[in-house]
């Protein structure tokens, strides 16, 4: 059963401007440890790839927060929701701490899709209840 659906669109240029103004502080505030390692790897290779990555993760976290109906309010914290990927490349949501507990208490699982093109990053998240009430 679907619990909620969230979508978000993010300007890649806006993410680039945030990085330009604040250095990596913005990424460190928004990305979890696993995401941050990938962001730094991409930034070291091609700066734009790192910014695109940051934009897709920001959009996915916004979409996630909409799918669970909380917005960015406790227990939803930026770093407690990571959008990582399986070896196949499929993106997955990995939760931590109170956010993980909150979602487990509701028997939620998530499907996520992210994409970027030119100056736009897009994400969609479907939250499903894995057991009937």
From TrEMBL:
| Reactions performed catalytically | apo-[ACP] + CoA = holo-[ACP] + adenosine 3',5'-bisphosphate + H(+)
Q: Name one GO molecular function term.
A: magnesium ion binding
UniProt: Mg(2+) binding residues = 8, 62
Domain named 4'-phosphopantetheinyl transferase: which ranges? Answer: 4-104
Q: SUPFAM superfamilies of this UniProt entry? A: 4'-phosphopantetheinyl transferase
Alphabetical list of InterPro entries matching this protein: 4-PPantetheinyl_Trfase_dom, 4-PPantetheinyl_Trfase_dom_sf, ACPS, Ppantetheine-prot_Trfase_dom
Main location class = cytoplasm
E.C. numbers: 2.7.8.7
UniProt KW keywords: Cytoplasm, Fatty acid biosynthesis, Fatty acid metabolism, Lipid biosynthesis, Lipid metabolism, Magnesium, Metal-binding, Transferase
Gene Ontology terms describing biological process: fatty acid biosynthetic process
Superkingdom, natural source: Bacteria
Q: Which cofactor does it need?
A: Mg(2+)
- Where does it localize? Cytoplasm
**GO terms under cellular component:** cytoplasm
Gene3D superfamilies with a match to the protein in the record = 4'-phosphopantetheinyl transferase domain
Q: Does the keyword Nucleus apply?
A: no
What protein family is recorded? Belongs to the P-Pant transferase superfamily. AcpS family.
Q: HAMAP family, per this entry?
A: AcpS (MF_00101)
Q: What does this protein do?
A: Transfers the 4'-phosphopantetheine moiety from coenzyme A to a Ser of acyl-carrier-protein.
Give the protein name, as stated in the record.
Holo-[acyl-carrier-protein] synthase
Source species: Thiomonas arsenitoxydans (strain DSM 22701 / CIP 110005 / 3As)
User: Could you tell me the gene encoding this protein?
Assistant: acpS
């Amino acid at each position: 059963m679907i619990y909620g659906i969230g979508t978000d669109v993010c300007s890649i240029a806006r993410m680039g401007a945030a990085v330009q103004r604040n250095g990596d502080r913005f990424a460190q505030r928004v990305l979890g440890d696993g995401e941050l390692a990938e962001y730094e790897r991409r930034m070291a290779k091609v700066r734009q790839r790192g910014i695109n990555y940051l934009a897709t993760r920001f959009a996915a976290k916004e979409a996630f927060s909409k799918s669970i109906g909380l917005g960015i309010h406790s227990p939803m914290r930026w770093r407690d929701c990571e959008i990582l990927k399986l070896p196949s490349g499929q993106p997955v949501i990995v939760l931590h701490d109170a956010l993980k507990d909150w979602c487990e208490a509701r028997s939620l699982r998530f499907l996520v899709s992210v994409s970027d093109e030119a100056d736009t990053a897009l994400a969609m998240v479907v939250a499903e209840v894995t057991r009937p009430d």
